């Protein structure tokens, strides 16, 4: 009688494990992917913020051809290397400067840096959704401190 009861317990435990283990593993892998994406996002936030700060020290931001100045491009590459280890393949950054209403004595500019990096989920590829290349674009932007032009 006891032997039969123990074998039923083992069978019930096996059934419970087969039902719970896939859900547990999926949740665990999901947490890992979300953690990686959040780490990437926070690193991009730092790159955008530092890029906006650096943009206020670089003059001019753009070359005569409309491209980002080589000095600013080099600064952005160093910021990526410092925060992410290297510049990820497919990473893009753009700077926009805008004129804001000043106090009447000088024009004031705001510099916004936007960075976009493709993020490839390792385990949970369905996180990429309907993206054709299986990538999730992680982006961040920051507006730098204002400076007055002379």
Question: Could you please describe the fold and organization of this structure?
Answer:
The protein has 2 helices and 4 strands. By secondary structure, the protein is α+β, with helices and mostly antiparallel strands. The protein has one domain. The chain starts with a helix and ends with a strand. α1 (2-55) runs antiparallel to α2.
Gap from first CA to last CA: 94 Å
Q: What proportion strand?
A: 15-25%
Average pLDDT reading: 76
Count of the domains: 1
Poorly predicted runs are none
β-strand number: 4
Main sheet properties: 4 strands, antiparallel
Order of helices and strands: HHEEEE
Shape: rod-shaped
Q: Name the structural class.
A: alpha+beta
Helix content: 40-55%
Query: What is the C-alpha radius of gyration, as a whole number of Å?
Result: 25 Å
Question: How would you summarize the topology of this molecule?
Answer:
Layout: H1 2-55, H2 70-84, E1 92-100, E2 108-119, E3 136-143, E4 147-148
Antiparallel strand pairs: 1-2, 2-3, 2-4
Helix pairs in contact: 1-2
Brief description of this entry?
The chain is α+β, with helices and mostly antiparallel strands.
List keywords for this structure.
150 residues; alpha+beta; 4-stranded antiparallel sheet; 2 helices; 46% helix; rod-shaped
């Amino acid at each position: 009688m006891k032997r039969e009861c123990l074998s039923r317990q083992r069978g019930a435990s096996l059934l419970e494990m087969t039902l719970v283990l896939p859900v547990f593993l999926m949740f665990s892998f999901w947490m890992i992917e979300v953690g990686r994406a959040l780490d990437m996002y926070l690193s991009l936030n730092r790159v955008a913020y530092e890029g906006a700060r650096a943009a206020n020290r670089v003059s001019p931001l753009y070359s005569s051809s409309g491209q980002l100045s080589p000095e600013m491009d080099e600064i952005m590459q160093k910021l990526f290397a410092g925060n992410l280890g290297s510049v990820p393949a497919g990473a893009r950054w753009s700077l926009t400067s805008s004129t804001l209403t000043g106090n009447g004595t000088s024009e004031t500019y705001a510099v916004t840096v936007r960075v976009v990096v493709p993020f490839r989920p390792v385990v949970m590829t369905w996180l990429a959704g309907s993206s054709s290349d299986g990538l999730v674009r992680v982006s961040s932007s920051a507006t730098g401190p204002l400076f007055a032009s002379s």
